[in-house]
Amino acid sequence: MSKDQKSTPSTELQKIIDSAGRLGIELDEEEAMQWLTAISISKTGGDVVVDTQQGIFGHKVSMLDFNPEDLSYFREIGHLVEFNDQPGVVETALALSGSAAQSKIQSYPGDCDYFERVNIKADTYEAACQILAQIMRDKVLSTEKGETYQLIEVKFGSYKEDVVKDGKLVQSGSPISWTVDEIRDTQIEAFHPDGTPATIKWGEAALDPGWCKLDWVVADPVRGQLANASNMLDVTFEAPDGTITPLDGYLDPYFQEVYLEAESIPVFSKLVKHVSSDALDDYVSQLEKEVNKYLTKDINYGKAAKRMYNIFRLTGRYEDAVFVRELFDEPATVLYQVWSLIRTIDDLIDEDSSISQDTLMAQADNLIISVIEALEGSQEAEIVRYLLHLKDSLSRMETGEKWTAQVDAARAEVINVVNNFFYERLTALPSIKLYIDGFQEQNK
Question: Are 156 and 178 within 8 A, CB to CB?
Fold first, then answer.
């Protein structure tokens, strides 16, 4: 590499640092250079690295952004959401994903997301589907509720025809959302659009499982903190001849996962051999579709920024990635977590919750403190006012339209501040503004 080539990243980085300074963002040049050096080194060698000290592994770029400081906390929640191996039948590999897997840069993750590879050995595809149906049902019934957790929702299967459920039309092809009681009964009672009864059987849904996902709310009484914990499953069928078939038709890549147990390396290695050679391009393309959605339709610059960071770090736009990753550590981004946690409280207020009211009240107090520490002036006063109304309703366990209106108003006010924060900073950097403009021009 020539001297000119060596100086280019530093020159570009200085422009980034200058832009950050004008916005009042403290970008640590030494830390940024360390990350750029590490990601440059990661271009050599294999895609997957193992941290033998911590017993974790993942894609080399993902591992650069994970801080093992809270590893025991994530593993503890992992014991709740994970599926157990069954020798000779079911083998698994559990990973953190999303913002939880980027804890080194995302100081205020919105949720606690997991991703689990579940490989089922069976004689036939249909047998594998029925094994999946059984282990999912067992998981749901064994983790329905406890002192520090509550199962909220399960996605399993797809509707084969239009139905009306809970007074709403659900179109054919939509993922099926199940309650615990429906899973216990192994069926959903709905109606056809013409008013005739429609019954969806759990066992029949298993034959085309599609999107498999479970969502809990978990509580940490010591921290006075709630979190949404989800487990997205990537289920495969292994035939007697060793052929691997994804049950949803697509084997997911591994570019944003940190696997929590080194013991699962063998099953991970076996499965990722079958990941498409175009997986990185496909992954980036999917992220760009989501960026387009959050920039032009369901406006959310915070979610767009998270996806832009992953795109930039995987496609060589490292200086842009350095700038975006610094935004996640700014105090105002705690509001993204506040926005998510208001929804979490809402999930519990509508349920026969096993999580104590004291824990909910402590979380409400923490939200108010977070806003006070992050903002000032009229923005702070307005959001705190909404949160105080929520806390008052929570203390009296109010539900119904009044509660829903308060939740919607508080979340709208918070996401407005989040959007303004990310928009102003993302568009202040010419290269990122050009990137954003490209999506918005396409949708005019």
Answer: yes
Spatial distance between the Cα atoms of 146 and 229, rounded to a whole number of angstroms: 14
Cβ atoms of residues 251 and 244 within 8 Å: yes
Express each pLDDT in 55-69 by its tens digit.
999 998 899 999 999
Give the span between the Cα atoms of 421 and 310, in whole angstroms: 19
Confidence of residue 1 (pLDDT cuts 50, 70, 90): very low
User: pTM for the complete prediction?
Assistant: 0.88
Cα separation of 392 and 397, whole Å?
9
Using CA atoms, how far apart are residues 354 and 146, in angstroms rounded to an integer?
A: 6
| pLDDT at residue 5, as a whole number | 41
- Answer whether residue 194 shows pLDDT above 70: yes
The token duo for 304 is: 């767009």
User: Measuring CA to CA, which residue among 375, 386, 361 is closest to residue 420?
Assistant: 375
As given in the structure block, the two tokens for residue 287 are: 């992220």
Looking up tokens 């610059």, which residue turns up? 301
Q: What percent of the chain has pLDDT over 70?
A: 91
Task: Report how far residue 401's alpha carbon sits from residue 306's, in angstroms, rounded to the nearest whole number.
Answer: 33
150 backbone φψ class: left, alpha, beta (φ>0; ψ -120 to 50): beta
Query: Containing H/E element for 432?
Result: helix 430-442
Under 8 Å between Cβ of 23 and 52 = no
The first and second tokens of residue 4, run together, are: 């000119």
Average pLDDT, the chain: 89
What distance in Å separates the CA atoms of residue 37 and residue 30, rounded to the nearest whole number? 10
Yes or no: say if 94 and 119 are a contact pair by the CB < 8 Å rule: no
Give me the amino acid identity at 430. Answer: P
What would the pLDDT profile of 258-272 be if each residue is shown by its tens digit?
999 999 999 999 999
